[in-house]
């Protein structure tokens, strides 16, 4: 086990035990790695760096919501990589991207990745989502958290499909803005 893996694992275990400071440090260490991973994957196939930021926010949200599923006996980086990889695959699938291989071995790349971006703190995602307008929050929860399609979400909430997509995009940008503003205070 590398020093980096041991450090991330220890921070995750401490955060599972309720240590908010350890959780903030963990997320601050994950942000640049995830951002770099997504930027390389997306810009390498002609996709926008903005998509990397959206995926970063989705992945942090997933880590927050699924952290109780992490097994302290297992390595942390493969657990994180599985989340990041599935978020990338879901994103590419939902945006009808051309075929792109996402090898499972990427966990090694993710653990060595850092784009030297500013570290961001942690927040309770439930309270962050509560700060969004109702329709935006519903769209994000349905598509990004529940795995519903854009069409299903549009029908469920009486929105057009394009309105659902715009709501999700704007909502993720707003969440990123909340994280930046809150970490500055």
Automatic annotation (TrEMBL):
Entry keyword set: DNA-binding, Sigma factor, Transcription, Transcription regulation
Family in the record: Belongs to the sigma-70 factor family. ECF subfamily.
Domain RNA polymerase sigma-70 region, first and last residues per copy: 28-96
GO biological process: DNA-templated transcription initiation
Source species, domain of life: Bacteria
Coiled coil (residue ranges): none
Signal sequence interval, chain numbering: none
Organism: Bradyrhizobium stylosanthis
Official protein name in the record: RNA polymerase ECF family sigma subunit
Taxonomic lineage: Bacteria, Pseudomonadati, Pseudomonadota, Alphaproteobacteria, Hyphomicrobiales
One Pfam entry name: Sigma70_r2
GO MF: DNA binding; sigma factor activity
RNA polymerase sigma factor 70 region 4 type domain ranges (all copies): 126-175
């Amino acid at each position: 086990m590398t020093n980096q893996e041991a450090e991330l694992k220890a921070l995750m275990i401490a955060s599972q035990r309720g240590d908010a400071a350890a959780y903030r440090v963990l997320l601050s260490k994950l942000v640049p790695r995830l951002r770099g991973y997504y930027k390389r994957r997306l810009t390498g196939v002609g996709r926008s760096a903005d998509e990397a930021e959206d995926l970063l926010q989705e992945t942090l949200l997933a880590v927050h919501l699924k952290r109780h599923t992490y097994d302290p006996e297992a390595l942390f980086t493969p657990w994180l990589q599985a989340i990041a990889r599935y978020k990338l695959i879901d994103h590419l699938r939902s945006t009808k991207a051309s075929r792109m291989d996402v090898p499972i071995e990427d966990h090694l790349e993710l653990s060595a990745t850092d784009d030297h971006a500013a570290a961001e703190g942690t927040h309770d995602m439930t309270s962050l989502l509560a700060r969004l307008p109702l329709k935006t929050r519903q769209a994000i929860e349905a598509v990004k958290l529940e795995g519903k399609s854009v069409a299903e979400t549009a029908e469920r909430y009486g929105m057009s499909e394009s309105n659902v997509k715009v709501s999700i995009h704007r909502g993720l940008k707003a969440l990123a803005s909340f994280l930046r503003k809150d970490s500055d205070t």
